[in-house]
Amino acid sequence: MIDLAGAAGAAWTGIAAISVLGILYAYVGYPLLARLLFRPRPLAPPGEGADRLPRVSILVAARNEAGVIRRRIENLLAQDYPPELLEVLVASDASDDGTDDEVRAIAAEDPRVRLYRMPERGGKTAAINRIAPEARGEILVQTDANVMFDRGAVRALAAAFRHPDVGVALGEVQFVNEDDPTVAGGEGLYWRFETWTKRVEAERGLLCVANGGIYALRRKLWRPLPANIAGDAAEPLLAAREGYRTVVAPGALAFERASSGLAEEFARKVRIISQQVACARWIRPLTLPPRIAWAYVSHKLLRYAVPWLGLLAVAAGSIGASLGSAAGGALAVVTALPVVLAPFGFLSVPGLPGRFLRLSLYLVVINLAAVVGTFRGLTGRAAAHWEVPASTRQAPADGDEP
Questions:
Q1: Which domains, from first to last, does the chain contain?
Q2: d(Cα 241, Cα 49) in Å, to the nearest integer?
Q3: Using one digit for the tens of pLDDT, what is the confidence trace for 352-374?
Q4: Residue 61 · residue 89 · CB < 8 Å
Q5: What is the pLDDT of residue 199?
Q6: Which residue, 322, 323, 56, 26, is CA-closest to 190?
Q7: From the centroid of its chain, how far is CA 5?
Q8: By CB distance 3.0 to 4.6 Å, which of 51, 124, 207, 256 could disulfide with 246?
Q9: Cα(198)–Cα(299) distance, rounded to whole angstroms?
Q10: Are 96 and 59 in contact (CB under 8 A)?
Q11: 243, 288 contact by CB (below 8 A)
Q12: pLDDT tens for each residue of 13-26
């Protein structure tokens, strides 16, 4: 006689197992497979005249950054790069806190700095759309007002373009407040794994994402984008469609403060994810080269399905357990564990247990952000504007870089 309950329990357990495997693939399986299945792809040999330094235009979109904009521009002007080959264009997104006055004061002393004011708030992409056509450089470097470059960052980014097949080059962002327990147990750990993943992808010609804090683009590849789509999301994909690679430029270091408040981090993730989803709708992943489409869906889009896979795993595993499947119950418990432990992440627990609890809290926060951000992106409500997170604009502490 067929054990219908046992068969149904096994079926539900199978669904739970597939869901858990999907989660594991999204976070760790994809980069491991990319490393194992694809051999490193060497870049094309440097082209003729590769030793010549290109003219570089640095684009900064600023919204109410009076507290940091002077230090940011001075940091850029102090780069180890020929002054005559460097310019800084600042787009003020209708700032009303004195940002414009700070930039004008610097521009009056150094003609390499130019200010363009947006009469109405349009967001970062709209601001870049305004100033990029004014740029004189062969290479466009994009960055944020709160990010500080290592002195050799621009030179390192420019060097990547000696290879004619490189269309986008990104640097590495390091957090100056990783000693903050919230950062160390959440964004800092997540970001270190992301950095490793990007290096694996870059070596194999799979990298198709950038970091808005520090990346560069060939001027001829730039095009205006819809206001609700971030350049660091779309430009590597557009470059791949044109046959160019995105790489990580060795030595291109930048430093910034990570959000130390969960509310700030949640809002930031919602904005980023909604723009990524809007970008996917606009770019149409299936029109990309197959290997890039696979990397993009695996690295970015599949992660936004993790909360739904988690719910499915818990529900299916629980049903399986009710039908007598011990494995189903185990899968449900393991999947739900981060949610159960997340509230304890607010406690000041020392050592490795504390880091694990804070990581659980961080994973819950970013997956909630994925739900909200995906909904906004799919419904055409991706935010073009951004609000400055207060904790990322604190005055630099002693020892902060650079």
A1: 56-260 (3.90.550.10)
A2: 26
A3: 888 888 889 989 999 999 999 99
A4: no
A5: 92
A6: 26
A7: 46
A8: 207
A9: 9
A10: no
A11: no
A12: 999 999 999 999 99
How are beta strands 86-92 and 245-256 bridged, if at all?
A: unpaired
- Report the pLDDT value the prediction gives residue 397, as an integer from 0 to 100: 42
Distance of CA 4 to the CA centre of its chain: 48
Q: Return the number of other C-beta atoms located less than 10 Å from residue 81's C-beta.
A: 20
What pLDDT is attached to residue 327?
Answer: 96
| 192 contacts: CB under 8 Å, gap ≥ 6 | none
Residue with tokens 């997540």: 190
Give a three-class secondary structure readout of the chain. CCCHHHHHHHHHHHHHHHHHHHHHHHHHHHHHHHHHHCCCCCCCCCCCCCCCCCCEEEEEEECCCCCCHHHHHHHHHCCCCCHHHEEEEEEECCCCCCHHHHHHHHHHHCCCEEEEECCCCCCHHHHHHHHHHHCCCCEEEEEECCCEECCCHHHHHHHHCCCCCEEEEEEEEEECCCCCHHHHCCHHHHHHHHHHHHHHHHHCCCCCCCCCCEEEEEHHHCCCCCCCCCHHHHHHHHHHHCCCEEEEEEEEEEEECCCCCHHHHHHHHHHHHHHHHHHHHHHCHHHCCHHHHHHHHHHCHHHHHHHHHHHHHHHHHHHHHHCCCHHHHHHHHHHHHHHHHHHHHHCCCCHHHHHHHHHHHHHHHHHHHHHHHHHHHHCCCCCCCCCCCHHHHCCCCCCCCC
Tokens of 194: 């992301």
- pLDDT of the residue at 388: 67
| Calpha distance 119→136 (Å, rounded) | 23
Under a CB-based contact definition with an 8 Å cutoff, are residues 252 and 157 in contact?
Answer: yes
How far, in Å, CA of 63 to CA of 91, rounded? Answer: 8
